[in-house]
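Before a colleague's protein record goes any further, I have to sign it off. What it holds is a sequence and that sequence's fold in token form. Would you go through it and say whether the fold makes sense for this chain? The record follows directly below this note.
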Amino acid sequence: MQDRNALTRLSAAFAAMLTLAGANGLAADLTIGRATEQNSLDPQFSDLGNDAATAENMFDSLIEFDSRLRVHPSLAASWKLLDPLTWEISLRPGVTFTDGTPFTGDDVAFSLNRARDIPNSPGPLASFVRNVKQTEVVDAHTLRVHTDQPTPLLMDMIGRIFIVPAKLGTSVTTEDFSSGRAMIGTGPYRFKQATPGDRVILTANQHSWRGKPPFDTVTLKFLPNAAARSAALLSGSVDVIEQIPPSDISLFQNRQDVSLFSVTSTRMIYLAMDQGRDDSPFITDKDGAPLKTNPLKDRRVRLALSKLINRPAIVERVLAGAGEPAGQLVPEGMGGYDPSLHPVAFDPDGAKKLLADAGYPNGFGLTLHGSNNRFPNDSQLTQAIGQMFSRGGMRVNGVEVLPYNVYAPGATARKYSLFIFSYGSVASSSLNGLSGVLATYDKDAGTGSLNRARYSNPQFDALLRQAASEFDETKRNKLLADATRVAMEDAGILPIYWQKLYWAARKGFIVDPDRGESTAARFVSLAK
């Protein structure tokens, strides 16, 4: 017994030494329990949050958003508008890539061009560079970006693209990044190894322009099961976990060894409806036979489905209060928010009348798709909406949920008819989100890159184009609000809620909860 007690005291003392060592700046490691694995290690493969949360540990962009979405210089030290079509960007001097290559304007020009067209991306970056006509390298640390139209939010757009070295050449592929051969960045950590489906291991970039990072080794451990993430934290096998479901919050409250962190994010969960074709793959009549016409192309049908969704009940029962019913893309406080737009009220009788007016008095058949590990309780959400549609008189042929790294490419490939998706706005306004999610899809123009449902409304597009070229912030936000109102009244997508996010960390670690949802190492620090 004495030996056992001594061992316990020794273990406690050793743990305290490790915490103290971290607090005094000595060597420390960090293991993050992530809910979702990246689709690719290629930092330009997609704009999806799970990809960015991995990439930003190893790669920098021109600007950086803090946890409250405020813009800070990164690889771009400063920028200014020379004329309505020309921006001059001064690059940070003295920056090197992890292979020792100096960072220059050529790397930015190469990266902006490469981001235009990455094959098989589930969240293309094309919309961010759509207005860039030419990237002129004036000298090693000066760029002039020429646009084909006035683009007041250019830095919000191109500033988010991760920069890779031009020496990789135009033949570099996503597979080259996945193998580790092309994993050369300027970020605080450098790539060490990756085990698909399990983890990514990073080591400190000793020559980072920011100075030595706080952790010697960062391990991103992928644990899609929420219970497994919680158990890993409580057992000490990981230091930080993300996406804690509401049902698990009580596990971490009032504990001395664990701290809980939360923030209401900008991520809006919505229902997308296939509107770009007559023959939608999962739409049937009431008897299960294929329909010759696609009812989702009718605004009355889309609005009826919206009226069948009980948003307050979802927030209360599915999320245990960890959300806020949504009626538009961005929450209050962001440019383009329209205070007159409210969540569509639950109204089964109104839905039935709209369906009858559209020629579907007895409803029709549908299958609902969703993810099962992208955000807390996403699987339960998909099931709940399926039940609401069924109670509202629809024939629900099925509810299918898939791992996000399978589900997202499927949605991008337009394999579904009705599907749950989300968008998290990491910018100063709704412009990027509206351009990606709701603008008419045009690959060459770079619009609608995230418009997986192929919604299209010329009035919306015209207002968005006006907003995108308006330099006066007040006028621009008014145009964005007007465009949002058009799309919401047209039921282009059906907003459901903005989510509240939770993180938990072991004693000795502090999480800066990011409204943009990232659990990158830069949002974790050691207690002092």
